Amino acid sequence: MWRDAFEIREIDLFGRLGRLYTRRGVVETPTLTPVINPSKPVVEPQQIQRMGYQLLMTNSYIIYRSYGDLAKEVGVHGILGVDGPVFTDSGAYQLMIYGKVEVKPLEIVEYQVEIGSDIGVVLDIPTRRDTPYDQARLEVEETLRRVREALSLDLKGMLLVAPVQGGTHIPLVAYAARELAELPAGMYAVGGPTQLMQEYDFKELVRLVMTARLNLPWAAPLHLFGAGHPLMLPLAVAMGVDTFDSASYALYSRDERLMTPYGTLRLSEVEELPCSCPVCSKHSAKELKEMPRQERIRLIAEHNLYVLLEELRRIREAIREGRLWELLESRACAHPSMMEALREYVRYSRFIATKHPVTRFPVRGVFFASRLSRYRPEVVRHHERLKYRVERTRDIFLLFEETPQKPFTRAGLIKELMLQDTDIFRMSDAAVLSYPFSLIPLELDGVYPLSQYEASRNVFELAMDEIAADVLWYILNKGYKGVVLVYYTLPERFVRKLSESLAAEEVLFLGIGVENYQEALSNPKPLAARIRAALETLHDLTRDRQAAPAPA
Ligand SMILES: [Zn+2]
Fold it and tell me: Which among 29, 79, 348, 516 would be 20 to 30 A from 208, CA to CA?
């Protein structure tokens, strides 16, 4: 069962660095398992293993059809000529493409055990994109029945993969995952997304994978079938996928397309190879174009495998460093459908924040590179904190626009003002208007990463409405009677809008625009006096209001 087979070592977003224990050795995850056609491999399995792929995949149904009982003698490892862990698929893909397979579901599981697969799959029924709900429901029930049946066999140490089906019928996916979660499978998988990926429908893929992930045990390993585009690997990992299989390296090579982390290039349209893998170091684009096709296809497939491997290493390192989000954002900028997918992904931010580490050592700063980074788990978690854990202690709210120096209470203008006149901070609850976090109450200044981030206001220009809405919500929700805003670069329209919105709710507002930040920093006395005067005015006015007789 999966509890004995998988170990999570580090987490970033929903991405996990883990170890999968198979009977032929340990596989470091996340990883990709290249799919090998047992009868005519494009690149030799031994060579793929030497490149650094720890887990290979092949199709037990093709072996069954071509070798029959003979394969039971030499085993799947003998056929491929390798000794490391091998993952076999069951023929479900053929079932989806041809509509039928000539083997019974239980028979192909037994066959996988007999040929010595280290990880085997139930012959599930992939939900096609156009399958209506009622039929998809019946197919899901049938897949569940097959998983239960297969788990009753003596698997002799083979990890059995239980696939979650349901396709784009999201409630069905959730149901299937919850049912499977009760069973002692060796691993789980999300099935049938090939069509989604071929159509670049990464957004739908996010809904499918996140639904499965959230309804399966968090500590169980999850495989994603048919996810081989380098562009989407960081996203798949960030959704909690631990292994993927892909024939894409070979499929693209047949099409003479070279993978890059950002997309694919047609060899015919390339003058220089933008890569330094062993293939591209040895050959020029011209040489590749001129060699015999068979040779060319093999070399392009090799290049593709190197690119995928490099991307996997980059992803694993990003998890170690806590920079998976940055990698996601950079991939999202490479293709519009990846951007769509990231926007869908951030809808799950509250769930992601529950697993994402609160802090890590050594402490690293957070880079806010785009407006989307306002959906990072750190920000979502901070907003929860603002909602439930911060209380109003004064009637007046003193808000400073974010200053370049951090921590705000220990460097820069806010610190200077504190030294100049501490009363200002006794007369009010003070906070910073932060571009990525919206609001940082000064008492939370030391909480990671509220003082350890880099952000520029230009990046957040388009998020100013969101920031204003957050600030307004906070002021009204906490019940402040008056607000003083000290600002240096905020646009006048932002200040005007905030003041109008507050006036509509009968909250008093005074804005203090600082013309020259540097000057205020070197001589904070006049600014301290202006702030104090503003606070005193608001105090008097709010007191008068309270004293005024209630309207008859
Ligand atoms: Zn290359």
Answer: 29
